[in-house]
Design a protein that fits this description.
With 137 residues, this protein is of the alpha+beta class. The protein has a single domain, classed as Aminopeptidase (3-Layer(aba) Sandwich). It contains four helices and five strands; from the N terminus they run E-H-H-E-E-E-H-E-H. The protein is globular, with a radius of gyration of 15 Å.
């Protein structure tokens, strides 16, 4: 298994994985659109795990100069419980640190107890905030 920044050639595998893991994402999170936009930034923070020719995991990170964000941490179900998600998060956090980031945030659905447990087990803690959003296009 190899962890590395995504390339254009990874698009089909990443899109297929995200469609599988995040089937209920809204249209503005369409995997093709998200992949293309992130790759276009050139920041190298769309990370994949490849096993042979298969994309089995992803993590996406971003840094706005204030805080880092972690998105799209996904591992194919048949590869879970092998430390892949933790390795992806560690890789993303290291990449954020190199940019001067000192704090990382992420969002999860309140009903996703397993994901919450995972993030808490690696050091993330809930913060009292009201999450707000606005569709602008």
């Amino acid at each position: 298994m190899q962890i590395r920044p995504a390339t254009v050639a990874d698009r089909p595998g990443v899109v297929a994985l995200w469609n599988r893991i995040f089937p209920d994402d809204p249209p503005h999170n369409a995997p093709e659109k998200v992949f293309d936009a992130k790759l276009a930034t050139g920041d190298g923070m769309l990370i994949v795990v490849q096993d042979g020719g298969l994309i089995i995991g992803t993590a996406m990170a971003g840094y706005d100069g204030h805080r880092g964000w972690l998105y799209k941490v996904a591992v194919a179900p048949e590869y879970r419980r092998r430390g892949i998600a933790r390795a992806l998060v560690d890789h993303a956090v290291r990449a954020l640190r190199t940019k001067g980031c000192t704090k990382v945030n992420l969002q999860i659905r309140p009903t996703n107890a397993d994901v919450r447990k995972f993030y808490e087990s690696i050091g993330f803690m809930p913060e009292e905030r009201l999450n707000m959003g606005m569709h602008i296009g």
